[in-house]
Amino acid sequence: MRIGIISDTHGLLRPEAKRHLGGVDHIIHAGDIGRPEIIDRLRLIAPVTAIRGNIDTAEWAKAYPATQTVELGGRRFHVVHDVHDLAIDPASSDIDMVISGHSHRANVEMRDGVMYLNPGSAGPRRFGLPITLATLDISPGSLSPVIHDLGGG
């Protein structure tokens, strides 16, 4: 199973992002969606699990939870926009991966047997950081994330 992981679109879904997400089985959006049309367009690619981020304050955003735990490919993923707002202990909650956004910095690390993934920001370039998203291959024995640099300005 392949999952696409995107965050901080801030109302912009780049053609490069759509290309990298093509063929995934599911998409997780880790907040700062920006506009409801972004999720509609992602749903044309694959089923979507999405949470709201700190900029998602309009009425439409109330339909999205602040955090969500989802099971995909036999693995449990906890999605929170800002990892500093994590209100559970993932290791004792049988969480395989914590997915966050907010910082616009792509990162993958292991902590206490739990993988933490931030796909970076796929929206407008901010803070001089790369424009990125992630894909995750799930197999019986492993989680294999890849950060994709989308280039662009």
- Portion of residues within helices: under 10%
Please give the CATH architecture: 4-Layer Sandwich
Q: Number of helical runs?
A: 2
Beta-strand fraction estimate? 25-35%
Structural class: mainly beta
What would you give as the CATH superfamily? Metallo-dependent phosphatases
Number of domains: 1
- What radius of gyration results from the CA coordinates? 14 Å
Largest sheet descriptor: 5 strands, mixed
State the end-to-end distance.
Answer: 31 Å
List low-confidence stretches: none
Reading off the top of the CATH hierarchy, the class is best stated as Alpha Beta
Instruction: Please list the strands of the largest sheet in the order they lie side by side.
Output: 3-2-1-9-10
Q: What is the fold-level CATH name, i.e. the topology? A: Purple Acid Phosphatase, chain A, domain 2
Counting DSSP E segments of at least 2 residues, the number of strands comes to: 10
Task: Give a structural overview.
- 10% of the residues lie in helices and 35% in strands.
- The chain is mainly β.
- The protein has one domain: Purple Acid Phosphatase, chain A, domain 2 (4-Layer Sandwich).
- The strands form 2 sheets. It has a 5-stranded mixed beta sheet, with helices on one face. It has a 5-stranded mixed beta sheet with strand order 4-5-6-8-7, with no helix packed on it.
- Strand 2, helix 2 and strand 3 form a beta-alpha-beta unit.
- It is globular.
- The mean pLDDT is 96.
